[in-house]
Amino acid sequence: MKIEQKVSVIIPTLNRNRLLERCLRSLLIQTSLPDEIIIVDNSKTGLAKNLVNKIIKNTSVNVKYLIEPKKGVSRARNRGIKEACYPILAFIDDDCVAKENWINIIKKFFSYPRVNVAFGKNLNGNLKNLFTCLEHYACEVFFLTYLYQNGSAWKSSILDTKNLAIRKSFFIRHHLRFDTKLTMLVDVDLGLQIKKASGDIYFEPQMTVCHYGRTNFINHLQREFHRLHSNYIFQKKWKMNTLSSQNKSLVLAQKIKQIKENKIRKKVEKEILDKKSRSFKLFFFLLVFLDRLIFFIGYKYVAIKNRSRL
User: Does residue 171 carry a pLDDT above 60?
Assistant: First the structure.
């Protein structure tokens, strides 16, 4: 039996007014308007307040503007959940633009009572920028590797927090939370929490947003630093390195995952680099190599450090 659901959209933001404006305007022209929009400003001074007031003057949508002085996107999301009034929580980042039917797809998908968690497809919003393409490439390969077909539905063991919807009752009942200690890998962490609660994560490809992402080298380096730091906390939290490497089923699953990942990698590379210049391709693969090297060194360091604590 299908039940019409109401949606609260939660947008965490920090000092990105231009991007936030584009995101907010995309939500106000939806074919099915959100029932509530909650903007959680992570700056202490409330820099986005004037912008939000200007945009929402002529809309019937209930828009809440909150200031969360404690830094961290997870704190901002948790605050948004606490303030949300409606049964479906939809999350979108301030550097994303929702397709015009995004809310409508969420409402339709969650009209089925068995659906508690769903995430959607992210398109690259800036095809000409090298660093945006690199971030999109890493995300696409990562998320597509964990997707699998289960009957007529796509399911996943992880999710994507910039294009996500969760049933609030499920979130509260299982004491789920966005981990405030993590700056990266929050989506993987939440996915493991949901898996632990025996929940299913659905992938709905029609639930689409355009992601504009990081656009320069400094932003990219910051992302890599946060990823390494979060990886250390994540491994420690979930005790990943205590798993025995002699476990044959684990080794086999890892090999199958690697084969799938390599196939997806080639496909995504072809899509991203189509009609790009030779110099663009050269810098792209150079950065991919550096990313892998940095992450490999960081991963080994974390593994050694965690073992020494056992």
Answer: yes
Please report the beta strands in 142-260, taking only residues with DSSP state E, as ranges in sequence order.
147-150, 153-156, 163-167, 201-211
Provide the 10 A C-beta neighbour count for residue 54: 9
- The CA dihedral of 149, 155, 161, 166, to the nearest 10 degrees, is 150
CB-based contacts of 197, cutoff 8 Å, min separation 6 = 170, 174, 176
Long-range contacts at 305-308 (CB < 8 A, ≥ 24 apart): 305/232, 306/235, 306/236, 306/241, 307/241
* Mean pLDDT over the full length of the chain: 85
CB 158 within 8 A of CB 201: yes
What pLDDT does 218 receive? 82
Quick: pLDDT tens for 292-307: 777 677 666 666 665 6
The model's pTM is 0.86
Contacts of 58 (CB under 8 A, 6+ apart): none
CA 172 → CA 88, 91, 116, 181, distances in Å? Answer: 12, 16, 12, 20
Yes or no: say if 187 and 161 are a contact pair by the CB < 8 Å rule. yes
Q: Using an 8 Å Cβ cutoff, are 74 and 179 in contact?
A: yes
pLDDT of amino acid 243: 43
Contact 13, 41 (CB under 8 A): yes
End-to-end CA distance of the chain: 51
